[in-house]
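Sample 1 of the test manifest.
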Amino acid sequence: MLWLDGRISDDTRAPFDFADRGLLLADGLFETILVIGGTPFLLDAHLERLARGAESIGMPCDRDVVLSAVRDLAGAQAEPAVVRVTVTRGAGPRGLRPPAAANPTVFATSAPWSPALAFKPQTLAVSAIRRNASSPLSRLKSLSYLDNVLALEDATRGGADDALLLSTNGNVACTSAANLFVVQGDRLSTPPLSDGVLAGTMRACVLALAPDVGLNAEKKSLSLDDVRKADAAFSTNSVRLVSPIAAIDGESVGTASGERLVALLMEGLRARVRDACGVDLFSPLSL
Amino acid sequence: MLWLDGRISDDTRAPFDFADRGLLLADGLFETILVIGGTPFLLDAHLERLARGAESIGMPCDRDVVLSAVRDLAGAQAEPAVVRVTVTRGAGPRGLRPPAAANPTVFATSAPWSPALAFKPQTLAVSAIRRNASSPLSRLKSLSYLDNVLALEDATRGGADDALLLSTNGNVACTSAANLFVVQGDRLSTPPLSDGVLAGTMRACVLALAPDVGLNAEKKSLSLDDVRKADAAFSTNSVRLVSPIAAIDGESVGTASGERLVALLMEGLRARVRDACGVDLFSPLSL
């Protein structure tokens, strides 16, 4: 499904300006939002991140239009779905310089979502591609995702489920599309934004849940060994929620006590989704 | 002007699939080609780089379609123009994984070009954004150009014409959209691809011209001081050809002897354009 200019269509084809800087230069941002029972989960956090991101790249972003796109498309979903809303800087003249007055393009697409995607363990392979901590984009959900695409493809070719990306500063950053966490004792740690990571909406949600399960949450740079030797490690994003990391480069990760804490976090997140969206999709899962 | 599916239109608006990975994930490549007298300059080099790039990201790329796009659009230009041909991986399902059988989107746009853009001196400001040498994209003309857009905007806000980007490995890389060269004595040096630079078509052209003007060309990592203290420094790309660098962060660059050698290179390049395209657009310029 496509939302464009206030209209929803099953066909994702529609008129478009091929001079759009989103297509030509990846000059734009997006949000991927889980929709359950027609309710977008963590909507405010997504809208706020998009607004902050737009401000940081100097792109106008009309919150009302974005909100309409997400609400209209979410409301059209009888089944659980993922809604992606994209804002580009719109059409411009040839070259890198943005037009003096940008006229952004806003559109949204949706795709079915299955609870089976959530809470699913995954294996990681360390990527040769690093997150560029010197780039503002490493902290933005910009359209520049080809690095992530290539890292993921390389990982899956090697038999892993996803890639683990280090930062150019040598610390651990994230996976191809998710934040990383480790549990060590009673501490829950995730890399700070300065290590080239996105301020994930699910990352913030999990950090907020941590005290409820007796974990002390912190943003702290992590080495690869910190993750490899952790009591537990997991990744978070809006589509997969929490994915426990079973192994890195073929070596298993985690202890029984760590896994128990991650299970408690997942249970807490399940309750948050149920409370926010009024539907408990995860009851058949034994966490 | 837009070339799409074999048709040329003055209107850049046309039907488009909003599930296109070029728009959603910057999953695609492009070439920017100077067209003079209807002839695309360095066409074979552009086509070859595009084909190599597509192969390296595992994207099908039909050379005949790309060639048609460029030739058709170039042939429609009475005045000098820049033709940009873009190839994306086409539409795909939600998420980062490419479809098993990609159906690429090929389109081309053109814009007027003026000889005044060529051989124009420029000032640079060193950017805080670095080229990610660990990423294959640092060596590809992919759609991921937002880093470059941001670096350029930052440089121009500070009063410079363009940004000078270092590589994450600390060496000098390039400007926002051009390769860098320095002249020191009789040596002409440009960073190797491993420092996160594009294999520029104009870079190759200038490297080939060097012996004609008594310069020994080499690909060598450069420090910022190597550029600052060079006899001359310049940048190269398909639109601006050679741009002598007048200053970096407000400090002037170059010596009279160095500038004379760059003038000889520009004279050689002018002759190459004239011989290839049958038109000498630069005669009014005193090089």
